[in-house]
Design goal:
Length: 161
């Protein structure tokens, strides 16, 4: 199912108060007819997700004065993703990068398969390259999570001047 997520309104749906920079807030996705709608709630008004919620998450309102991070161009991300395929010790990085690219709609999750020894494999499609990729699900070990985050941030993000 494909649908467009609304951006944060920067207002609490319950109190109609404007959310302030660095303030914690909650977002909820709900089905309303054929539409998926988003509602944001300040922490004080949050009573938990409604029963009919499709999903919810906790966020922090960004400070508009802070330096914004920008993604690397899609082609750079794809090139790095393809390069990681031949590096067995970097499969956890490739898996996390594939999830980021699915979220950014650079890749589309088509299916999951069972790989060797019962491991899971994501089947993703790249419309830009008209290519299908198989990505083993290799979640980073606890001690490696920070390393993977640092590596991807260093390679894929940059500050706007």
């Amino acid at each position: 199912m494909d649908f467009e997520l609304q951006r944060c309104t920067r207002r609490c749906a319950a109190t109609e108060r404007e959310l302030q920079p660095d303030e914690v807030f909650y977002s909820v996705l709900s089905a309303e007819g054929a539409e998926v709608t988003r509602h944001d709630y300040c922490e004080a008004a949050w009573e938990g997700p409604p029963d009919e919620a499709l999903g919810w998450w906790k966020s922090r309102m960004p400070d508009p004065k802070s330096t914004r991070m920008h993604w690397a161009p899609n082609d750079v991300m794809l090139h790095y993703f393809e390069k990681l395929e031949d590096q067995p010790d970097q499969q956890d990085v490739r898996y996390v990068l594939s999830l980021l690219m699915i979220r950014r709609r650079i890749l589309r999750l088509e299916d999951t398969e069972q790989g060797d020894v019962g491991s899971e494999v994501l089947v993703v499609y790249c419309p830009r390259k008209e290519a299908e990729f198989r990505v083993p699900v290799v979640e980073p070990e606890q001690q490696r999570i920070h390393e993977v985050q640092e590596e991807l941030a260093r390679l894929l993000f940059g500050s706007a001047a």
